[in-house]
Amino acid sequence: MNTTDDQPPVPSNGAFPLGSATAAEDTEQLAAALGGDADRPKVSATFITLLALGLFGTYLAFVTPIAISLAIRVNALAPDNDEYLGLVLGFGSLAALLTSPLAGQLSDRTRSRWGRRRPWLIGGILAGLIGLAIMAASPAVLGLGIGWVIAQIGLNSTVNTFGTIQADKLPENQRGKVGAITGFATMVAPVVGAVFGGTVANQPFLLFLIPGAIGLVVVLIFAAYYKDADSRNITFDSPLTAKVLISKYVFNPKRYPDFAWNWLGRFLFFFGLTLNTSYTAFFFAERLNIPVDEIGGTVATVGGIGILGTIAGVFLGGFLSDKLRRRKAFVLGSGILFGIGAIVMVMAPDLTLLLVGSLLCNISIGVFSAVDQALYLDVLPERDTEAGRFVNIIQLANVLAQAIAPFVAAAALALITTGDRYAYIYAAAAVFTVAGGLVVLKVKAVR
Question: Where in the cell is it found (predicted)?
């Protein structure tokens, strides 16, 4: 069992930007009720299948706007102002950044007949659907941005709750395999979304609401199947005050160094990935000399080919990392491979090399999504008592990267007014993903 009492006392200074330097307070009763990591039995094939479907549907609703829908709507509502896309994406991620740790802490302490996690799954997907409906109906970029803020808060909460459920249930020897399967689902989702978006680009209600409706259905199916234990009798000796809530937005990297290095590596990788994906439609349109409102079919074709890379990456990385009992080498390799793919795309003179670079990036994303998920579950602190808190903290690496990177990209595009502007962004993406792979080598508890 991972509790703070297992850790040597350390100074409370040097708080990391995203977690708490304080110890988990008086949660032995909950830990005893839930059991330690050694007591976790293997999960069933049905559980894994429904988990993967639930994540697929949530990501379909979540990532389709990032991949193509928002670019299409921004171009329609504000032609010649492509920097607005970065602003909308950035404010949505910033909202999720501020709310995710709160949702994780409240999930850990939720008392209900439906358990701690299921209320957050259902509430999150419903909020996401409301936000998507606002986006579909909006006649202006401001309304689009407001809808995206609501959608990202809700959908991000759902994604993170699925991650917490995995921390609750998965034994160590299934983390890589389940990471491969769920990673495949989450990587295929944006590709399916891009294909779908390319076919209904001029119909905003279908563009946003069909992915959202699919997400709602599969999440409800998982919630109906998942037997989350009744949590009404869980008690805590210490109240969750406003001061405690705020303190738990930060954590001490000296107490959890492996978790801290994994957090930083994940942030760097997703920062590079977000730089790469935020302006995909505009990059391809400029490179191939195709209008943005006609690029959907090309992006869909590239995404469809990318499925092959994603399949290879998630299963090769996830299953091999479990079999070889190695995580760090796969994460480093994925960062380097993504960097190579991004540079190939920068240098590509035609669609053929763009496809090659995109395929390499998709293989990399597949490997990273499977193996880094297993890695953070391996080093997750306070797994039995504060899993929701720490899963949301690790997911904040993604969210913070997705919040900052679009603003950086938008500022760069505003400053770079001549030449191949998007090439600079893709080159920077390569640097950050490689750096993310290198940082993970500092993790000591996992090979």
Answer: Cell membrane
CATH number of 149's domain: 1.20.1250.20
Q: Are 80 and 393 in contact (CB under 8 A)?
A: no
Any domain includes 25: no
| Sites in the chain below the pLDDT cut of 50 | 1-36
- Give the gyration radius of the chain's Cα atoms: 21
pLDDT reported for residue 201: 65
Q: Is 202 exposed, middle or buried (0-12, 13-18, 19+ CB in 10 A)?
A: exposed
For residue 324, give its domain range: 40-231+252-442
Over the stretch 244-275, which tens digit does the pLDDT of each residue have?
777 777 888 889 999 999 999 999 999 999 88
Please indicate, yes or no, if residue 402 is contained in any of the structural domains: yes
pLDDT at 85: 84
Q: According to the model, what pLDDT value does residue 341 have?
A: 93
- Among 427, 300, 428, residue whose Cα is nearest residue 355: 300
pTM for the whole structure: 0.69
Task: Determine contact, residues 355/307, Cβ cutoff 8 Å.
Answer: no
Number of domains in the chain: 1
CA nearest to 317, candidates 328, 308, 307, 306: 328
Output the pLDDT for position 122: 93
The answer to whether residue 419 sits within a structural domain is yes
Determine, yes or no, domain membership for 432.
yes
